[in-house]
Amino acid sequence: MTKVQVARFAELKGNKAGFLDTRLPGGAKENLKLIGRGSSENPLPPAISGDHRYVMNWVRIPPGGGSRMHSHPTQEVFIPVEGAMTIYWIDADAQEHAISAQPRDCVSVEGGAMRGFRNDADTEALMLTIVTGHDAGGPLIWHATVVAEENALAT
Known about the structure:
Elements: E1 30-35, E2 54-61, E3 66-71, E4 76-82, E5 85-90, E6 96-101, E7 107-109, E8 115-118, E9 125-132, E10 141-142, H1 144-154
Antiparallel strand pairs: 1-2, 2-9, 3-8, 3-10, 4-7, 4-9, 5-6, 5-8
C-alpha cells in the first residue's frame, strides 16, 4: 500500500523557542517542522515522519526577527513566500554578504558556510527552508558572537 502523509498548514504546531538565538535581538521566529528530524535544538516532531534525507520547515518571522549567524554541514535553501527576507552569509574570505530575497525567490547557501536571515519589513514574513542531507539541520553550529551573546544573557 502506498503511504501518503499530509501536513495541513493550519494544523501545524510551531515552536518559538526551539533555537539558541530565539531570546536574542533579531532571533525571533516560529519554526513549523514539516519533514525530517532537523536540529536537536528543536524537539518537536515533524508533521510528516520518516527519513526523507532532508529537512523542510515553514518559518514565521516577525518584523525584526530571523535567525542569527549559524551553519549546517550541508546546503540550506531559503524561499520567502510572504514578504521579502534578507539572507546573509560569510564567505571563505570572512566577508559578510547579504541579498534581499523577494517572495518565491530561491537562495541556496553551501554547506559549512555561516548564514542567517532577517525580516527587515514591518509585517510578518513566511519562508520555506530546506536543509539537505541524511541528518539535515544538525549539528547546528552557532557563530561565536551568537554564543557569547547567549552566554552573557544567561548570566
